[in-house]
Known about the structure:
Layout: H1 2-14, H2 17-31, H3 35-47, H4 51-64, H5 69-81, H6 85-101, H7 109-129
Amino acid sequence: MNTLLNILRNEIEKGDYATALKHLDNYIADHGKSAEVFAQRGDLNRLLKNIQAAIDDFTSSINLEPNNPVYYHKRAELKEDLEDHVGALNDYYRAYDQSLKFAKYNSLSPRYWNDYECVHQLLIERNRTI
């Protein structure tokens, strides 16, 4: 895994996201499923503007590690990119909820709650104008 991370770091520093993505695809094909690798690929897909593919990758990360709030938060941001505000709201709340349950994520709770509140307020404002 460390070798893969070094390769990815080099490719990303060069701006060669497509090659980095191929390395992740090959790693998944050769080594099986890893929440961390799916998340790395999700980040790269987002950089490449492959939003739905990035959502799918973070969904895979969540399926493998359902207690990791970071994956919910990243998926929520992507759903906002697609203007799926209800889906984003649900994921922001899950990120917040999971961050409270595990000490190593507690410092993220205020940020996740703030993001939840922002999307919630947006939905309230949109409903007022309909």
